[in-house]
Amino acid sequence: MATPAARFQIRILLALLVALAACLATAPGAMAQKRSCKGAGAEAGQVSQRKLALATVCLLNKQRRAHGMRPLRMSRRLALAARGHSAEMAQAKYFSHNSRSGASFLDRIRRAGYLRRAQRWSVGENIAWGTGHLSTPRSIVRAWMQSPGHRANILQRSFRHIGIGLSLGAPVHVAGRAAATYTTDFGTRG
After folding, report:
1. Which ranges of 4-75 does DSSP label H, i.e. alpha helix?
2. CA 51, 52, 54, 55 torsion: positive or negative?
3. Residue 8: how many CB atoms within 10 A of its CB?
4. pLDDT tens-digit profile of 101-157?
5. How far apart are CA 48 and CA 58, in angstroms?
6. For residues 127 and 67, what is the distance between their CA atoms, to the nearest angstrom?
7. Contact 131, 125 (CB under 8 A)
8. Most Cβ neighbours (<10 Å): which of 67, 76, 82, 176?
């Protein structure tokens, strides 16, 4: 028979085991919430364009998860359409969903092959640019989330795919300042 001191130690040990089990059960969710998007605070030119794009997708998917939505998957074809548009805007110094030739984002997405053989589809586009600390993925996503139209694209339940295009430089002249121009193309197809 255990002594009162031994029974007390067993109760303490059991309480600790229950607490540890509870922590382990919630750890994956808690860790996912705390996980940061690597490169989210990087300014244009501090890391590669690929890292800025991946951080942007990560932040957008965090927003979607926070609203009970599944994450967007990267689409090579949507990224092709988005990258070309960001590069053109930064080089030709204009800012619009329509290209200089008059092509719409739907035209670009179609040309990239995303809609090939699709019977049903839906697409959307967000664009942005910033200099210095306003060129970070975190700043761009924050601005989009504060804009009703951009927010609606990010939180559109039907969208399943995303393509991010980033170009160093701005669609306007910014003397000596690091800048980035972003295009995000969203889509779903069936």
Report:
1. 4-34, 49-66
2. positive
3. 11
4. 999 999 999 999 999 999 999 999 999 999 999 999 999 999 999 999 999 999 999
5. 15
6. 22
7. no
8. 82
Q: How many residues does the chain have?
A: 190
Nearest alpha carbon to residue 159 among 45, 73, 82: 73
End-to-end CA distance of the chain: 69
Cα separation, 86 vs 93, whole angstroms: 10
Rounded Cα distance, 76 and 97, in Å: 20
CB 68 within 8 A of CB 170: no
d(CA 77, CA 29): 32
pTM for the full model?
0.81
Paired residues of 121 in beta bridges: 189
Distance, CA of 182 to CA of 189 (rounded, Å): 23
